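Recap from last week: sequence in, structure out.
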Amino acid sequence: MTAITNLEAMPPSLVSPLIESARVHGSLYTDPRIFAEELKKIWFETWVFVGHESEVPVANDYVRKRMATQDVVMTRDRDGEIHLLLNRCAHRGLQVCDDAQGNSSTFRCPYHGWTYRNDGGLIGYPFNQGYGGRKALPEGMGMGRVPRVASYRGFVFGSMASDGPSLEEHLGATKGEIDRLAGLSPDGEVALDAGWLAHTTRANWKFLAENETDGYHPQFVHGSIFSVTGSPIGALYGEKSTAVTRALGNGHSENDLRPEFRKFAEPMRWFGTTPERVPNYVQAMEDAYGHDEAERRMIEGAPHVMIFPNLFIAEIQVFNIQPLAADECVQYATAVQLRGGHELNRRMVSQSIGSVGPAGMLLADDTEMYERNQRGVEMLDPEWLDVRRGLLRESVDENGFTVGGATDETGMRGFWKHYLSLMEA
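Predicted structure tokens:
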């Protein structure tokens, strides 16, 4: 294929000439027109991860969130239903909610005093005779609402499209990975209420999504951390590793590390500890699931899965990626909390601070790569990025999913295949 150098002459299908089976064009990460098209066809059309029900645990709780460029308020009404409201007054367009979180049954616009319920419905407006009376305004004058809101195991997703595939259809096989995470809780529940850290990154959101299940980089990007801490993680991502990379359909992918952990058959090795150091957690798991099943779960550990387009579950942490512009995004990170897993929860928070906190080592390494990637693709030559690693040694598993080695770019290729199908729709 002839390389495209004159981006002004792009055909009506913006991206189809830019994506091949083994390479993608650099303009996919830099062109504002492509970013605008992504907002319409991905971020405002498919299911996007927004937050977790545990962030609004009681009636009238609310928390500010994002859906790409949209400022969203996630609320729980008095009946317990979750809503996603667009943070805009129906009168003059002002941002209604200014606080990051709180508890209130209503929101009052500070500009002219229009007041809304926490499900978005308009309650009233001052000096109503100017409109012909209290009930004179037409229907539909409430705050904007995300048309579809659904959750799975407490993970809340929104879709700006009024119809389309259900959330469960979108999640597909990744439901099993979320189940697996929840199954590490003696109570079968996950919470994401430890607080989120926001990291703004001067890079295109797709660099982050690609990287999350890229097993080729850890030994190089994070090698210094592994050597200082004596972590065995690096060995999970090598040519001799029995772990695999799997494309799970719908743009989702995982690094399945279970083959490595099964090989050692040591409970809690995935967490870098031993049962003796977390005895209360081990006992709670055995009480909940029985000895054999609890042991299996504690051997296999938590998932490492990227759920298209923006939810990354990284064993003990969850990331929420939201794009701001073609060359900027924000990545929110929080520690996983397992209901009933108090010993683990404290350590998860501590380890998350050390890896993705303001002075954390792990995310700092990755962010440096993202931003250098962005600066690099702005260079004129070479125009293409290579994603062929492992293409010739892929296989298909018993569930019909494409599987590659621990360091292969199988997940990236699955991402781009789904991305193309959405952008051409």
